Predict the structure of GGDEF domain-containing protein.
Amino acid sequence: MIAVVVAAQLATFAVVTVATQRAVSSRLEQELHVGQRVWEQFQQSRSEQLLASASVLSDDFGFRAAVASGDVPTLRSALGNQGTRVGADLAWLLDRDGRWQAGAEGAAAPSAEVLAGLTRQAARDGLALQTVVVNDALYLVVMLPVMAPERVGWLAIGRRYDDAVAREYQRLTGLEAAFVTSAGSRTRVHASTLPAAQRASFASAWTPQGDHTRPIAVGSDHYLSDSHPLTEGDDARLVLLDSYDRALAPYRALRSRILLLSGLAALLAVAVAVALGRGISRPVSRLATAAQRIQAGDYSQAPVAGGSREIAELAGAFGRMQADIAAREARILHQAHHDGLTGLPNRSHAYDLLQAAIARGGDVAVLVMDVNRFKEINDTLGHEFGDQVLREVAQRLRSASDDAHLVARLGGDEFMLMLPGLRCEAAQAQAHALWNALKQPLDLPSTRVGVEGSFGLACHPEHGADADTLLRRADIALYDAKAAHGGVAVYQPGRDESHLRQLQLMTDLRQAISGGQLELKFQPKLDAASAHVQHVEALLRWRHPTLGAVAPDEFIPLAERSGFIHELTRFVLDQALACHAVWRAGGLDLGLAVNLSAMDLLDADLPDYIEQRLAAHGVPAERLILEVTESALMQDIEYALRMLHRLKACGVRLAIDDFGTGYSSLAQLKRMPVDELKIDKSFVMQLEEGSDDAVIVRSTIELGHNMGLSVIAEGVENDRALALLRHYRCDMVQGYLFSAPLGSAALLDWCHQRERTATTADLPLETDA
């Protein structure tokens, strides 16, 4: 407030000062303009008087006679007497050519330059009127011809510009005046109304800069100046000065009053500011401190009320806001640390509590549990029912655990239990107790349902020294429990490395295609009777840059688990069809078999992609055989049947791979639009006459033929198995007895060589491949 008042007063003072300066400057300019007009009249009057005096003297008969006689003493006397009579300060006589002839008593001869200037003007105009400098004195000189009757000489008389002339002009106008001449940057003051002490300062401050007003400082005094030539074409000038200090004197009292009022206003502002500070600013400052405390999360102190009624109401609002913020923050903190569905601690909070328990030392067991087949519950009965199951499972786990044990939900259907103070054997017994408790039917609002869970156990310090390691190894044990259908599994040393390898493979698999690490191999399928090559099966191989060759049985399940299997299948299809196009160009037209994963049957865009790639590579649709494992078909038989019919509509052939291992029924088999059955190699590799494998193989071949399907046996590795398959009338055979999987170019060479050397009666050829 003080600053506003002071700024307003300063602004007012500045405006008044500027306005005063402008008003004074305008007034001084007007006075100088008037003074200039007065000087013009003054100068004209003096010039006319001087011209009249010179005319009277030049017309005087006695003076003309003296001039005609050339009597110098007489001329001097006449010039002195006549000059004194007309009030002239200077009187000269020049001969008819303008040379000096005589002057008044004691008068010195002027310079030739001065005489030449006067003579030129007089000869041109009939008379001359100029301002000249003679012996450092400034004169207004008029020169006329002396006629008798012809011109016999020139008469020049003049009056001096002295201090008396300047003071006379000052009496008329009130302005200071100075008569000056300039030579370069040097100014000479010949006469002035200024005191003698100021004339030197004026001479150094003033320089000729045209006929316009400008400020000038003469010592400590300030003037507005204007200058004009004394006579036309002369360097001598009249400088008029009007005093700023004199003009501003009346305004100084006004400025003093304004300053006094400004000081009083500032003192009043200080008094009001003090009152405001006591009544408003201090309570507001206390509220600001309370707001900063609230911002820092400290809600322990209520804001202190004080001041006016409005401030007290504001303090009350602050207090209510603080209480609401504290309650809301407590809810947010609870929600940040707990699961919204079950009310259990969430993953982040459970991790912090586990890390704190480990830091305290001692035994800590970690159980990770998930609900078996929970996805089926969600898909069959809906997500709302699944949420009820999760809430009931959480309640069951809390009820079956001690108060000192922590039950948390990690996400989805996965839970964690932290058992501090239990060694691994006791924790395992507790896990079995929880498993048995969970097997009891759950009482839900709408029904009773039975669920089972799998538990993975890891213990500190045996299995890890930090929370990350324990949780990861408990997860590994959980995978082992689910795979073994055993309910509870304890982490086994060494499984971590296997798990880390799987994680690395799952990560690196996504760069395998772009990195050129994947390649296709092709294994021939031969007609069992003729031994001619009819089909080839595309097999994917991965050579990891650091781990070396990775078996398909290892990375294909990882691709299915990570969701990358669709990209792999499309890569295999595109590359295999491209190779087939090359073989056809080389004169080899074979059936091409490509394996599909169970996840591929869920890819709704796969049929469109297959049609597009067949057209792009120019491969007939009937030359492509898609092999689907029997177990994949059994996962969701209805959806699998719909997808098989869509694929069949593309014109490709379909085959059931690994037949005999997927527990399909004949009722399901007859509904499938397949063309081939492929007997799993587990039944073929040890095929012996009279064995159980022989019964299964022969029955499968007869079943396939009775249903109109071709039957292929894979895993043929000896002549004994081949003979039995021929005897059973198997359609095609595949195995290392004929060839290992070959690259595209090697396969083309192998097929050409075999066709050249083999006949229908030949036995299969052994190759180095």
